[in-house]
Amino acid sequence: MPSHGDGCRFMDSMKIGVLALQGAVAEHVAVLRAIGVEPVEVRLPAHLDGVDGLIIPGGESTTMRRLIERWGLRQPIIDLAARGAPLFGTCAGMIVLAREIVGDEAPILPLLDITVERNAFGRQLDSFEAELAVPVLGGTPVHAVFIRAPIVDRVGPDVDVMARLEDGRVVAVRQRNVIATAFHPELAGETRFHRLVATMAAEHADPGEGVGRRPHPTRRGQQGR
Amino acid sequence: MTETSTWATKKGLAQMLKGGVIMDVVTPEQAKIAEEAGAVAVMALERVPADIRAAGGVARMSDPAIIVGIMEAVTIPVMAKARIGHFVEAQVLEALGVDYIDESEVLTPADETNHIDKHAFKVPFVCGCRNLGEALRRINEGAAMMRTKGEAGTGNIVEAVRQLRDVLAEIRRLQGMRQDELFVAAKELQAPYELVRDVAANGRLPVVNFVAGGIATPAAAALGMQLGAEGVFVGSGIFKSEDPARMANAIVQATTHYQDPKIIAEVSKGLGAPMRGLAMEAIPEQERLAVRGW
Lengths: 225, 294
Prior knowledge:
The complex is a heterodimer.
Chain A: E1 15-19, H1 25-34, E2 38-42, E3 54-56, H2 61-70, H3 74-82, E4 87-90, H4 92-97, E5 98-101, E6 112-117, E7 128-132, E8 142-146, E9 151-155, E10 160-164, E11 170-175, E12 178-181, H5 192-205
Parallel strand pairs in A: 1-2, 1-3, 3-4, 4-12, 5-6
Antiparallel strand pairs in A: 6-9, 7-8, 10-11, 11-12
Chain B: E1 3-4, H1 7-17, E2 21-25, H2 28-37, E3 41-44, H3 49-55, H4 64-73, E4 78-83, H5 87-96, E5 100-104, E6 125-129, H6 132-140, E7 145-148, H7 158-175, H8 182-189, H9 193-202, E8 208-210, H10 218-227, E9 232-234, H11 236-239, H12 244-256, H13 261-268
Parallel strand pairs in B: 2-3, 2-9, 3-4, 4-5, 5-6, 6-7, 7-8
């Protein structure tokens, strides 16, 4: 099915991008496939054409910063978010999306009103796994893998906290269409975050009657959104 | 409820390094150049492999002061090398808090029979391999990441290509086997049956696999990636080249865009001289590094 849609899109025609500059790209691609969403690896701005959402994977945020700048991806991703498409960042992806980074580093894609601290738990020896309650995903806890993980130090007024560690520190947040986790749901067979992103993408792709520009009722098959 | 240094976190850090370039550095200044160029991690060393090869003698773990200096200089993960079988060097590196240990054939082996029991450590290990059997023996010992050995310090990718092809061809061969043939395959590979069965079922190693040994140009990095490596180690290839910052950056770009020859061409322009290379025929058998490890 063409990506411009017909106002009645199903999960199996939806495309979600995975920023594939570096990092745990294949893991997110596998989760998307498992829930019936078509993944698109995004290395250049043109690869964003027709995607209904974008995942920014774990990896090294310093590397992603260089590559986002070098290949002109900054503004196209900001534009995608401004159109209401969901963005989901895990670990380094959370750092990429944060408005403020502790230590005066310039933000990369300042789309989430949080302050994030890199390597907040220490070095690799402090990486850990934990069972984490994420109430919006239901009663079953998320098995969360934290690898040289960041932490959210400050949460802006429009940001919802999705999960905290037992000591109260914030590790998952949502601001409208932007979600970020300090941990890696994609490493532990967890699909609920990706399902949430896919649902948000479906709503974005098909806002329903009375929302936004309406296609002509007799020409829905031919017209864009 | 929380558990540190689990198999998922050890193996997981390597998964985060995929699609990236890990660079050998010998000073904090070089580490900063590497980080600035987009390296996903650095390997902290006293000498790069080309210099180790030139110096001869016994090559050991680096001075901890050098490793700590590099750890303090950058925010990306820092790896360091221990000699094959030298578990006390590994203990020292773990005590320093390095993020990954490379049990490396580039250093002079400390044990001609045994490798380090890597399960006994909280820090994860990467090991070199020339073929699938060697890779699975290292994984059985606890390695959470693999790389080819190549022939380090040569700027010659021929050995890494051979080894990468060997590993991946062996995996494809296992995939085509009947269940009842995997027992003999395990015997022939001299590898545990459980790991052989896992590889046959999944069509890949159970850990991340990088190309290493002899990479000195952006095209060489992309060659490794196109053959099926999941990331790239560059040893002497960066800081033995004419313009290390540009070479480092170009190899990073070529690793991300390894399927795009136009981009590889663009980033390869005007990089200055790469490191001077060595033909395999010029290296006497007893000076070859890849044959170390068993």
